[in-house]
TrEMBL record:
<dbReference type="Pfam" id="PF08669">
    <property type="entry name" value="GCV_T_C"/>
</dbReference>
<feature type="domain" description="GCVT N-terminal">
    <location>
        <begin position="16"/>
        <end position="265"/>
    </location>
</feature>
<dbReference type="GO" id="GO:0005960">
    <property type="term" value="C:glycine cleavage complex"/>
</dbReference>
<keyword id="KW-0032">Aminotransferase</keyword>
<feature type="binding site">
    <location>
        <position position="203"/>
    </location>
    <ligand>
        <name>substrate</name>
    </ligand>
</feature>
<dbReference type="InterPro" id="IPR029043">
    <property type="entry name" value="GcvT/YgfZ_C"/>
</dbReference>
<dbReference type="InterPro" id="IPR028896">
    <property type="entry name" value="GcvT/YgfZ/DmdA"/>
</dbReference>
<dbReference type="GO" id="GO:0006546">
    <property type="term" value="P:glycine catabolic process"/>
</dbReference>
<dbReference type="InterPro" id="IPR027266">
    <property type="entry name" value="TrmE/GcvT-like"/>
</dbReference>
<feature type="domain" description="Aminomethyltransferase C-terminal">
    <location>
        <begin position="305"/>
        <end position="383"/>
    </location>
</feature>
<comment type="similarity">
    <text>Belongs to the GcvT family.</text>
</comment>
<dbReference type="GO" id="GO:0004047">
    <property type="term" value="F:aminomethyltransferase activity"/>
</dbReference>
<protein>
    <recommendedName>
        <fullName>aminomethyltransferase</fullName>
        <ecNumber>2.1.2.10</ecNumber>
    </recommendedName>
</protein>
<dbReference type="InterPro" id="IPR006223">
    <property type="entry name" value="GcvT"/>
</dbReference>
<keyword id="KW-0808">Transferase</keyword>
<dbReference type="Pfam" id="PF01571">
    <property type="entry name" value="GCV_T"/>
</dbReference>
<dbReference type="InterPro" id="IPR013977">
    <property type="entry name" value="GcvT_C"/>
</dbReference>
Length: 390
């Protein structure tokens, strides 16, 4: 539903707001901004175009910052259960800011620019709190530089690389989770080969003053069409990717959220830099529970629930907030994201279930308008990812 005129006055606008309106976008409130949920072509067409060609997303509501100084990597590592210190220059990694109970304050991306500089992208709804948290915890060890005068665009899809290489020759050399400073049609930008759709693609940080010119240049390419938040949501869900505030938040730990893969061995028990992050005792205990569970002895006292993929066995969409039950009618969890996947062509979801029900293939039921809908726990992604790894 579009924002009311009263709320419009309170919403922030990205540098591309006027372009969205010109293109006929339906604008909605999101993370404190007026953002395009879809354009006249509609969500389904935008989703399909991204899977087939190249979709352009405005993600300028996201927060961008730099951490600068010789101690920046070591300092940042104290806030997350991931390996920051050993990330090579020119590479990017997914990270998780945790609170002292091991709950997820935000998920983010960080890039080692070299020479003691980390470029960080955080979620729009969390950026003010994240900045304060980072400044408070490590501001004495490195310089925290917000970048409010920068916009962020994402070009996603199988034709994204060929399109961008036409405007910035040599950009095709980047592989998934690498990047660097480039010129795109003469416009200075910082690019990483990454994104949140499951497709090959790029995220492009650019000065706010250049954002509209860059967006128009990209939209002038025959492969590119604008895509809104609606298709961004369906694309990321099919790729099995979490939406902060829905699928992860301060009440969920990385292990409960099935994000164990984001915790490198060096930070785990027995690793060279074991622990040393907020909530380490709880998170490491849950990792140990998962390890024992591999031998058939999961400690359900330590790990009581897990995020899982779910597929409805009937063609009935199961939305976020839907109650999940065992086949015997006992409450076992909740759906956190769900829709009819346009590419998967089935009703897919993710949510949290009691640990005993987390094994793929387990049958459960969702209660939709008072009626049970049979579902099966599934591996993710629901649609194969196509990241370019070289």
């Amino acid at each position: 539903m579009a924002a009311s005129s009263a709320s419009d006055a309170q919403l922030l606008k990205t540098p591309l707001y006027d372009l969205h309106v010109e293109l006929g976008a339906r604008m909605v409130p999101f993370a404190g901004y007026a953002m395009p949920v879809q354009y006249p072509a509609g969500l389904m067409a935008e989703h399909k175009h991204t899977r087939d060609a190249a979709g352009l997303f405005d993600i300028s509501h996201m927060g961008q910052l730099r951490l600068v100084g010789p101690d920046a990597a070591a300092a940042f590592e104290t806030l997350m259960p991931v390996d920051v210190v050993d990330l090579p220059a020119g590479k990017q990694r997914y990270g998780l800011l945790l609170n002292d109970e091991g709950g997820i304050l935000d998920d983010l991306m960080f890039f080692n620019e070299g020479n003691g500089s980390l470029f960080v992208i955080v979620n729009g709804a969390c950026k003010v709190a994240d900045l304060a948290h980072i400044q408070n915890r490590i501001g004495a060890r490195c310089e925290v530089q917000p970048l409010p005068d920068h916009a962020l665009l994402a070009l996603q899809g199988p034709q994204a690389a060929a399109t961008l290489a036409r405007l910035s020759p040599g950009i095709e050399r980047f592989v998934f989770m690498t990047g660097g400073a480039v010129q795109i049609g003469g416009i200075p930008a910082f690019v990483t080969r990454s994104g949140y759709t499951g497709e090959d693609g790029f995220e492009i940080s650019v000065a706010a003053k250049d954002a509209e010119a860059l967006a128009r240049l990209l939209l002038a390419q025959p492969e590119v069409k604008p895509v809104g938040l609606g298709a961004r949501n369906s694309l990321r869900l099919e790729a099995g990717l979490c939406l902060y505030g829905n699928d992860i938040d301060t009440t969920t730990t990385p292990v409960e959220a099935s994000l164990n893969w984001a915790i490198q061995k060096v930070r785990r028990a027995g690793g060279a830099r074991e622990g040393g992050f907020p909530g380490a005792a709880k998170v490491l205990a849950q990792l140990a529970a998962v390890a024992s569970g591999a031998a058939g002895h999961t400690d359900h006292e330590t790990l009581t629930r897990k995020r899982v993929g779910l597929v409805a066995l009937e063609r009935i969409p199961v939305r976020d907030g839907t109650l999940l039950q065992s086949l015997e009618g006992h409450d076992i969890g909740t759906v956190t994201s769900g829709l009819l996947g346009p590419t998967a062509d089935r009703c897919v979801a993710m949510g949290y279930v009691a640990a005993a029900f987390a094994e793929p293939g387990t049958r459960v039921q969702a209660i939709v308008r008072g009626k049970p809908v049979p579902m099966e726990v599934s591996t993710m992604p629901f649609v194969p990812t196509r990241y370019y790894r070289g």
